[in-house]
Amino acid sequence: MRGYGAYKNTQVATAVQNGRDLEYRLLAQVTGGLMKARDGKVTIQEKYNWILQNEKVWGVFLADVNDPANALPQQLKGGIASLALWVMKETKLVMSDDSAPLDDLIEINRQIMAGLKPEPQSMAG
Predict the structure, then answer these.
(1) Is the pLDDT of residue 38 over 70?
(2) Average pLDDT, the chain
(3) String of b and e for 71-100 (b: at least 16 CB within 10 Å)?
(4) Close Cβ partners of 42 (under 8 Å, ≥ 6 residues apart)
(5) Model confidence over 88-111: pLDDT tens digits?
(6) Would you give the distance in Å from CA 64 to the centre of its chain?
(7) How distant, in Å, are the alpha carbons of 73, 117, 120 from that of 9?
(8) Nearest to residue 93, comparing CAs of 83, 84, 102?
(9) How far apart are alpha carbons 24 and 116 in whole angstroms?
(10) Are 78 and 84 in contact (CB under 8 A)?
């Protein structure tokens, strides 16, 4: 059973890492879109689409930390929930005021991405 236990632990670790990788890639994608929007490299429709896509990502994060099955520490879940609510409030602001900067949304995403950044895989020899 020892081998099975090790396999099961590897599956759980891989699932967690894959989830983190997915979250990182999702944030990277919407952050890139927000940066293009900030820099005027997209149409106004595309800008609003990126802003709303970012809000959707954060909505999923909020739903995830409110799921009773989420095993993250309570303090971390509370912090993520607070950030998600802030993102939703900020989204309303930037959607209602075309001159409102996107820098704060971009910065929050970058900070979360730094915490999620995938670790390089070690080379098996």
Answers:
(1) yes
(2) 87
(3) eeeeeebeebbebbeebeebbeebeeeeee
(4) 33, 36, 50
(5) 999 999 999 989 999 999 999 999
(6) 11
(7) 20, 21, 20
(8) 102
(9) 6
(10) no
